[in-house]
Amino acid sequence: MERKVFGLGDIVLMKKPHPCGTNEMEIIRMGMDIRIKCTGCHHSVLIPRAKFEKNMKKVLRSAEGETTNN
Ligand SMILES: [Zn+2]
Q1: What is the reported pTM?
Q2: How many independent structural domains does the chain possess?
Q3: Is residue 69 part of a domain?
Q4: How far is the CA of 37 from the centre of ligand 1 (A)?
Q5: Residues whose beta carbons lie less than 5 angstroms from ion ligand 1
Q6: How many angstroms separate the alpha carbon of residue 62 from the centre of ligand 1?
Q7: Per UniProt, what is one Pfam family of this protein (predicted)?
Q8: Which of the two residues, 44 and 4, has the higher pLDDT score?
Q9: I want to staple 61 with a disulfide (CB 3.0 to 4.6 A). Which of 5, 11, 40, 50 is the partner?
Q10: What is the CA(28)–ligand 1 centre distance, in A?
Q11: Are 27 and 6 in contact (CB under 8 A)?
């Protein structure tokens, strides 16, 4: 099973799209809860980490530019 690795500033693809129709979100705060910002309407939401990991499909672009094998 694929392990989800994500970090601050990453652009992630969510399983469920935002009401505005965009499912790409930027991680703007990391912690016990994660704050993500919709790249479409710039609305931000705070969600528990476990829920985020469940709803996140994959990392589209890593902010740190790390090399990933996928
Ligand atoms: Zn939105």
Answers
A1: 0.84
A2: 1
A3: no
A4: 8
A5: 18, 20, 22, 38, 40-41
A6: 20
A7: DUF951
A8: 44
A9: 11
A10: 14
A11: yes
